[in-house]
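Task: fold both queries, return tokens.
Query 1:
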Amino acid sequence: MKRLINQQPTRVWGIALSLLPFVFLLVLYVTASDARLAENPQDKLLPSFSQMGEAMQRLAFEPSKRTGEYLFWQDTLSSLQRLGLGMAIAACLGMLLGLSTGAFPVAYSGVAPLLTVASLIPPMAILPILFIVFGLGEVSKVALIAIGVTPFVARDIQKRCLEIPREQLVKAQTLGANSGQIVLRVLIPQLMPRLIDSLRLSLGSAWLFLIAAEAIASTDGLGYRVFLVRRYLSMEVILPYVAWIALLAFVIDFALRKLSLWAFPWQESRS
């Protein structure tokens, strides 16, 4: 008798099982929405799909009377620019700190304790400081993402660097490699796949920092729009925006995954 723990679904069943929770949630929402609207057509908590469609039609395909911009696409572009810049800075700083503290014992002794303490500070707690130092413009929002993500990436890279077998470093030195060559030819190629994985794992936190910063001080962005319309209980706008944020996060994660497979196929086969 084949044990359940050893059973693998076929490709078709795997796709069906992955879609099943979404279908269940969709049916549950439609049922609850229809019931509430039948009882009170003015109910705002669970708007119908037609109401959400009308709201998104207005935001995405009709220019704003005040600015002339298509608000939905402007919000998306602004948020993605902030997120992309913040994640890029975090990737560079995290790689630099993680590599240096993982490869060089002197750097580990001097920087690793500070990095550990920095990773334990809630980034949201320093948001007021960023607003005071950098103002309410773009710099503070990007800085929050970079500061929030960098310690996680750095510690993850550091851990991976320390896990690389010491024998590889000894062999490289036996062949005459200096410290710079060891870093470039031995360590970095093995750390790059881990860097992409670290960015994927920290993507949710990066979105959280972005939405929070936009909600507090911004004039556009997905987070700004969600918190702007909440005062009017405009769930027909909030729910599509939340779904759009989730879709964007999924697409970015998928793209990073494909990038890792394309650039480092050997890592997949080894794992």
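Query 1 returned. Query 2:
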Amino acid sequence: MNLRYLTMKPKKPYILFATVLLGFILSFTPIYSQEKENTKYFELENGLKVFLYNKKTLPLINLVFAFNLGTKDESEETNGLVHILEHCILFRGTEFHSGDEISENIRKHGAYFNAYTGHDLSIFELNLPSEYADFALNNQKEILFNLKLTQKELDEEKEVILEEISQIEDDPLKYETSLVYQNLFKNHAYQKPVYGKREVIKSATVEQVEKFYKSYFTTSNCALAVVGDFQMEKMEENIKKVFGNLKKEEIPPRKFEKASPPKKIIEIKKEMDVSTGYLAIGMLAPDFNHEEQYAIDLLTEILGRGINPMLNHPLIERRIFVNSITMHYGAHKYGGIVLINLTLNPRRINAAKRQIIQFLKKSRNLNYSKKDYHGEFQLYAIDYLESAKNKIKFNTHKSQEIGLVIAESLAKFMLMNENSKRGNFLENINKITSSDLRKAAGKYLSKNAYIIVSIVPKKKS
């Protein structure tokens, strides 16, 4: 019996946008200096980075392992191997146990486990009652550092992955997002789809996968965050005992160029078996370590989120009614992306596209705060900036109640942060002014460097 679906929640979206998650990562900068008794950072001799956060809200423990391995590390000939490894590590065997044995054992301990592939990192997470902390550490060590595959197992998992790719390509939202990425990051490490190329996956051999696995799944390329109800000294001791004997394998440092915006607007139109229209507009944004990320966080909230986003205004004025409109900011290590998604009547896609682009170009001249007005006009002005700050503050504090989100944030932070003086996220958000928003809008949202993807129903034959 295949137990994978009994022990897992649905897989996370391939394109992970995380304004709230990003904010939460950055808001944890102060505890990195170990100013609080319930946190500790240390590094094993073999290079494994570890962050412990003792949070006794619930009798649970959350472990997240992040590997500095994503589609950025693949070539055209290996695009898909990271996705294969994600699947095989979760569902296939090790040198000691079969995949079914591992799944059954995890299920017996009441655990939730999952993983996903990203552009920068590969993430593996486990959540279970805190009384099983020792089991959690040993289980993750086994599946992450002792993978053992047969060609038969690999071929079976490849079929699952190929079906997954088909589902993604049949999903208009995921498909248009992937097309935006591939064109916005043309000739960059982020151009390759995170789910991989069919031909690479179909032809993959055990030897190829194992070689790739041994090159990246090492302790020096990994960070572990543990959040939950545990005793600090005992957890540190157990982690050193379980993982300390793993051999240190140095990985040559990899250099990647920062992404550059396209030189012109690129438009792509696709027909799919859909009944409504889909429109995606993408543009380059600040990377994970860039100081202008805070202004883009706020612009994203003001323009495209909430009950009445500003992007709705030019559409309503032209009587262009949409089913949904969202705006997201994704900050990767070597480049960011702002993505606007709309669903609407397919006959209104071109009109909506024109209005959105015109509005984005005007965004560098808009008033976002009551302070932008004078005299009695302040009484009637909507303070978009203050409202957005309050919403981000609320979402950030809300996310701090979810142990698995905290652990994931900390694991990512350990591998992606390059700014020792970045400060607290919410404090940086509070410093942003309307002038900062207009500057960021002019730099990122107002250029003729958009990737526009529209998906319309197939023409009737």
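Both queries returned. Flag for query 2: The domain at 4-243 is CATH 3.30.830.10 (Cytochrome Bc1 Complex; Chain A, domain 1).
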